[in-house]
Amino acid sequence: MSDLDPTIHPLPRLSLCAALAAGPGWSEFSVVRDTTGLSDSGLSKHAKTLEEAGYLAIRKGRAGRRPRTWLRLTPTGRARFEAHVAALGRLTGAVPVSPQGTDVPGSRAGGRDAAEYGDHGTAT
User: Fold this and answer.
1) pLDDT for res 78
2) DSSP character for 74?
């Protein structure tokens, strides 16, 4: 459980990081807001927390006459998000762990053989 990141763990921040991790670069504030379902003020609050932790970069500018804000994960933020997601996977059993405590590459949840899964990733 020590791999869970308390800065990322609250659901609004986790969804914010997930939305930004899905893209390679800067995402417009309104797109992230719509993707996460957060309000403008909620997104701003959580983005500021992640920015203060060094996980998120915020860029302000203009697109024509309109002010715009763009967000992106920093390299540290992306690494911490990936580590957090991996820790959640281990916690839920979705990512098997070897006796040495490391993820088992190329395996699926609980170490089950891929043939045990139907099209939807559930055991058959």
Assistant:
1) 95
2) -
